[in-house]
Design goal:
about 270 residues, alpha/beta, Rossmann fold, 8-stranded mixed sheet, 12 helices, 8 strands, binds S-adenosylmethionine
């Protein structure tokens, strides 16, 4: 997995179509207060801290960025140090290069965040990830999970779209290891981890735009891109009624738009 993320240089907010308003809503849900400590698991290049600081200049929070990928972590160091004072970096920010399941924290945390990262863990590791996240929290602390919202067979269609892209982009470990779980599976995993399931606090519309992956992931290769588009159209054609009712695939100037959803949960 890490070897793929050491080659994957994408802007997550761009490919995930995350807007300023999505972050506003997310911070409202997160409820991060002055003096609190947040662990951003698989936090990429630290976008959560950068977005938080845009909204709370001088805010005194403690931010731990955990990433197994040296490339993502280095990108994080560069971006955070460009935007944030040296004193804040020194006193409030820690970088950990670790797989989450191997991570040991000296501090109990107010918040553990899994943003667009729960799917990175194999099916067999998912319960352990939830248990670990809970075990790192102080009493009264919160686990916040932001993930694709995939009811029933929408999961299979979404997973097939992403896995084909991973295969064509040469991200073999991602293709083999990542597992996008359905809502029904997520509920069962939570129960197994001893967490009471809850409805999402917020559902975000996610207009998946294939063209955003053309340069960054498929390196502008038209042949690969056309294979991906054909795969999506075929998968949609053979999908069941639930998928066809809930998900629409329409042509866009540079490829396809697909309306998926993402959800923010707080436990
Ligand atoms: C899709 S990206 C999301 C990045 C960021 N959370 C965001 O939403 O912008 C997934 C991230 O999870 C990280 N990741 C993959 N496997 C991981 C693991 N076992 N432990 C912690 N992070 C992991 C990857 O390196 C990658 O940066």
């Amino acid at each position: 997995m890490t070897e793929d993320y050491n080659r994957r240089t994408v802007e997550y907010a761009h490919i995930h179509a995350t807007s300023r308003i999505h972050f506003d809503i997310f911070f409202d849900i997160l409820g991060l207060k002055e003096g609190q400590r947040l662990l951003d698991v698989g936090g990429g290049y630290g976008e959560i801290l950068l977005e938080y600081m845009k909204r709370n200049q001088g805010g005194q929070v403690f931010y731990d960025l955990l990433e197994p990928s040296a490339l993502q972590l280095e990108k994080g160091r560069t971006r955070i140090s460009a935007d944030i004072s040296e004193a804040f970096m020194h006193q409030n920010v820690q970088f950990f290069q670790n797989d989450f399941l191997d991570f040991q924290s000296e501090n109990l945390l107010d918040h553990v965040l899994l943003k667009m990262v729960f799917h990175e863990f194999s099916w067999n590791n998912k319960v352990a990830v939830l248990k670990k996240a809970k075990s790192l929290l102080k009493a009264g602390g919160h686990l916040t999970v932001w993930r694709p919202y995939l009811r029933g067979s929408v999961r299979d269609f979404f997973s097939s779209v992403i896995q084909k892209k991973d295969e064509l982009a040469g991200f073999g470990t991602m293709q083999r290891t990542r597992y996008f779980c359905s809502e029904e599976e997520f509920e069962a995993l939570l129960l197994e981890a001893g967490i009471t399931p809850a409805e999402p606090i917020f559902l975000l519309e996610y207009i998946f735009d294939t063209s955003r992956r053309f340069e960054s992931e498929l390196k502008g290769d038209q042949h690969l891109y056309q294979q991906w588009i054909s795969h999506i159209l075929d998968a949609y054609k053979s999908a069941d009624d639930l998928v066809r009712q809930q998900v629409k695939v329409v042509e866009s100037p540079g490829g396809l738009f697909i309306n998926f959803q993402r959800a923010i949960f707080r436990f």
